[in-house]
Design brief:
By secondary structure, the protein is of the alpha+beta class. It has 3 domains: 105 residues, Malate/L-lactate/L-sulpholactate dehydrogenase, four-helix barrel (Hypothetical Oxidoreductase Yiak, Chain: A, domain 1); 205 residues, Ribosomal Protein S8, Chain: A, domain 1, CATH 3.30.1370; 35 residues, no CATH class. Helix content is 37%, strand content 18%. The chain has 11 helices and 13 strands. The strands form 3 sheets. Strands 3-4-5-12-6-7-8 form a 7-stranded mixed sheet. The chain has a 3-stranded antiparallel sheet with strand order 1-2-13. The longest helix is centred in the N-terminal third of the chain and has 19 residues.
């Protein structure tokens, strides 16, 4: 596994991640080690080989560590359902075909998306070391959690990382349409920013991700206006329980719709993976392979200028931008992903806040799998 700074074991020993859960504002705080151990046990019981189960468990909880809570352990029951109903092969063979000096295709064999993307990201870094750039596409993959996890892997090797995927369900229409034909197709761009920090843009091409809608539904919260519209009337939709009748709005109007379309072609069509109306909604269908497509690009900074010079310039520009005049009511200017490292360190040290409904869902899964419950 690439080094992401202090390990969770070191953080737990050094900080306050107590072995007993602590209630905070109706949530429960659990140590990171417990979440990883629980996930690994669940995956093993589902037939994922031991080493693979450990890798997926760490990558799954990495999303929670960095703040992408809707893409972390929250997704474990859904992955479990797909494995049990035949939608995902828990022991798939992932193969790499190097098609040129700087390109490759990874065939996931319908395995867990985290394993497929780990292989793809590692391959992209390897290619970039040899050729300066590595572009790797995937097919026969599955949902792989938070986009920033994958863009971060090249960054940890002194490279720029760019990642995108065809989302595992369609929740957006092409601009002007009413049919869900496009996904939230995310884009993540990461680069080293000096002092072991990184800049990380991680965004959906919709105003919010559908995982956020599911998170609001879990909490029973009303959606803000401007996130979804009713696809029959075009009016605002604020009840997350009715999200199946709605469409997520793209960022920037037609621009977001166009960006999702082009990323879909690059992540799906180019790799022989599903795109557009061919996408299988993994929220609704658990027994059918999704043939999810992704791509990752690693760019070796040292092929352009010394890495230290690049990072120094990134820092200089960042400091200049952050020290500029602020609009009224703005307490600080923040750059993309700036709080990611702080949040990760804090959660390693203090644990991760878990909503009670999510813990109940995970404990129900534990009962079905015959493993020790989370709490």
């Amino acid at each position: 596994m690439p080094d992401r700074g202090r390990t969770y074991e070191e953080g737990v020993m050094a900080g306050n991640a107590a072995e007993l859960a602590r209630p905070v504002s109706g949530d429960t705080v659990l140590p990171v080690s417990r979440l990883i151990t629980f996930s690994e046990r669940a995956l093993r019981s589902l037939g994922v080989p031991g080493e693979d189960a450990g890798i997926v468990a760490e990558l799954l909880v990495e999303a929670d560590l960095t703040g992408a809570d809707a893409h972390g352990i929250f997704r474990l029951p859904q992955y479990a359902k797909m494995i049990r109903e035949g939608g995902i092969d828990p022991a798939a063979t992932v193969t790499v075909h190097r098609s040129a000096a700087s390109t490759a295709i990874v065939d996931g064999g319908n395995g867990l998306g985290h394993l497929v993307m780990k292989k793809a990201a590692d391959t992209a870094v390897e290619l970039a070391r040899e050729s300066g750039i590595g572009w790797v596409g995937t097919r026969n993959s599955n949902h792989a959690g938070s986009a920033s996890i994958w863009a971060a892997i090249p960054v940890e090797h002194g490279m720029v990382g760019i990642y995108s995927a065809v989302a595992s369900a369609n929740h957006m229409a092409i601009w002007g349409g009413t049919e869900p034909a496009l996904g939230t197709n995310p884009l993540a761009i990461g680069m080293p920013a000096g002092d072991d920090n990184m800049l990380m843009l991680d965004m959906a091409t919709t105003v919010v991700s559908y995982g956020t809608i599911k998170k609001y539904a879990l909490h029973g919260k009303t959606l803000p206006e401007g996130w979804m519209i009713d696809r029959r009337t075009g009016g605002s939709l604020t009840d997350p329980a009715q999200s199946a009748e709605g469409l997520l709005l793209p960022i920037g109007g037609y621009k977001g719709s166009g960006l999702a379309l082009m990323l879909g072609f690059l992540g799906g069509t180019l790799n022989g993976a599903a795109m557009g109306l061919d996408v299988v909604d993994f929220n609704a269908v658990s027994s059918q392979p999704t043939n999810t497509g992704q791509f990752i690009l690693a760019l070796d900074i040292a092929r352009f200028r010394p890495r230290a010079e690049f990072e120094s310039e990134v820092q200089r520009h960042a400091e200049a931008l952050k020290s500029g005049a602020r609009l009224p009511g703005v307490d600080a200017i923040r750059l993309p992903g700036e709080q990611r490292t702080e949040r990760r360190e804090q959660r390693i040290r203090d644990g991760i806040r878990m909503p009670v409904p999510l813990i109940a869902r995970l404990d129900a899964l534990a009962g079905e799998l015959g493993i020790e419950p989370l709490r």
